[in-house]
Amino acid sequence: MNAQEKSLDALLDRHGRAANRLVQILREVQTEQQWLSRDTLSFVARALGLPLAHVEGVAGFYRFFYSRPVGQYRILFSDNITDRMAGSEEMLRHLRHLLKVEQNTMRADGRVSLSTTSCTGMCDQGPAALVNHHHLVTRLTPRRIEHMAALIERQVPPGQWPAEWSRVEDQIRLADIKLGPQPLPGQGIAAALARGAQGMLDDLKRSKLRGRGGAGYATGTKWQLCRNAKSDTHYVVCNADEGEPGTFKDRVLLSSYADTVFEGMTIAALVVGARQGLVYLRGEYRFLLESLEAALARRRQQGLLGLSIQGQEGFDFDIEIHVGAGAYVCGEESALIESLEGKRGTPRIRPPFPVERGYLDQPTTVNNVETFCAVTHIAVHTGAWWARIGTSHSTGTKIHSVSGDCERPGLYEYPFGTRIGRILEDCGARDTQAVQVGGPSGVCLSAMEFSRRIGFEDVPTAGAFMVFDRSRDMFEVALNFAQFFAHESCGFCTPCRVGTELVVRRMGKLKQGYGSSADVQVLYELDKLMHGSTHCGLGAAACNPLRDTIAKFRPAYEQHMKSLHFAPGFDMDAELSQARLATGRDDHGAHLETVA
């Protein structure tokens, strides 16, 4: 056994040679070897007793895994629309020129490779880039780019680059409950223990807390279903895969409020009867891992994790962190569970739901980072207190990640029911023509709608609040979002895999000046075809920004058209039939027999 194989063997031993830890194993192997060769994957497959095809399939699914050599310096520029607005494309071109390397290729000497990634969660301090997935560079400028190129040529390790470059600020602009003073560590657990598991669950129901990840499912109901599921083993999972472009609230909560998050998970464990918790941390937030592990270790020393928490016999619970490898679809709870189990992050068919059969086929409650924070505050202050905040259908507060065309990007926390216009006023937005609420899968609002209010009964949101002034081309915004969905499609179902690509191609035709109003009609048709036929919510939401911008900002599309009439020789029926066939539906909207 050579030195590399001995190192691999030791790594596998650390993970107990467990197949469900495959994603973590591959992530750590790649950190050591820079890429995943076929020989390495074969070694891992044999050690775990898995087919090589399975291991290769997992390695090929995630963006941050590489099956061929990449540069010693792997630089990924954030390609979110707000980064583009801040000049990321120009920065990338400048660095390419300085380093004499083509995008998406490794330089001949193996020194460097440059590419893009969807969003790094740094929308309030971009343009930003990831270096070797561990090191962040924020607030890129031409001067910083030139300095970076010089450091790379001198082979200075990223860890020795100027510390200022990796400074990540919380930028909390307006704090309320979850961003204000926090309960002392253990205070929420003590309050929950005083009520008892059932009493805490009843109080959570009184609070009418709904999930802060976007779907807004009643947290108390979810925990009740998990608690009632018949099994000796239950799990609590924190969804920290904050992949929606424009969202960065969870980054701040994990950076500065980790105790409150972990406390909420521990309270959940008390209620549902779990002994194990898992945090699924998005790959772009790998830089937070050490600080989060330190917080967990501190809580174990304080008797807030481990055996007999706060002296309560039988209350045993601990938390483990899993780091993702770059896959937006893993924000969907069943895809996240698949990834936790060491598989490709393909959403499951439901039912059964995770509360019945989730992680390792056991009852599992999956909640968002912000939701667990809210639970801790509810435990301390009671559900009745929480229910008095916000609206009757949307109780409590919501944190908004504000970015784009405004003077003061950052985090703003408001009670539900707050006007869109109030948020724009507070963040210093001027001459605003549109706001994208909830990220690309959310809703795009025009100036006529700024009197609407944040809440599940009006404008629901996962937290992103992207501002666009009248200098912005809303067609370009929609195109960026379309490219994002096409890039992030897991490829499992034909309507999403093909449909998102057809949308990008059609919009690309418009961008090049070869389109007409007929192309807009085809885009409408693609939206209708995809909306009810995709396997999960990603494909169904992929055309949301397209639909909104066509309806509310039609002139932005018209300026890209050669003609507002059908192009000569254009056959609308043929075009629509092709779209239906490609997305797996017939002319009557019924599903076609296709193999994904």
Task: Give your account of this protein's structure.
With 596 residues, the chain is an alpha/beta fold. The chain has 24 helices and 16 strands. Strands 5-11-10-14-12-13 form a 6-stranded mixed sheet. A 4-stranded mixed sheet has the order 2-1-3-4, with helices on one face. α9 (197-207) packs across α12 and α20 packs antiparallel against α22 (544-552). It is globular and about 70 Å long.
In short:
By secondary structure, the protein is of the alpha/beta class. Helix content is 42%, strand content 13%. The protein has five domains: 3-61, Arc Repressor Mutant, subunit A, CATH 1.10.10; 73-162, Glutaredoxin; 173-387, 3-Layer(aba) Sandwich (Rossmann fold), CATH 3.40.50.11540; 397-469, Roll (Ubiquitin-like (UB roll)), CATH 3.10.20.600; 474-583, Up-down Bundle (de novo design (two linked rop proteins)).
Give average pLDDT, whole number: 92
Low-confidence runs of at least 5 consecutive residues: 563-570, 583-596
The CATH superfamily label of the largest domain reads NADH-ubiquinone oxidoreductase 51kDa subunit
- The CATH topology of the largest domain is what? Rossmann fold
By CATH, the architecture of the largest domain is named 3-Layer(aba) Sandwich
How many discrete domains? Answer: 5
Largest sheet: 6 strands, mixed
Put simply, the count of helices is 24
CATH classification class of the largest domain: Alpha Beta
Please state the structural category: alpha/beta
- The radius of gyration over CA amounts to 24 Å
Q: Tell me the helix content.
A: 40-55%
Number of E-state strands: 16
The strand line-up of the biggest sheet is 5-11-10-14-12-13
Termini Cα gap: 41 Å
* Residue fraction in strands: 5-15%
Silhouette: globular
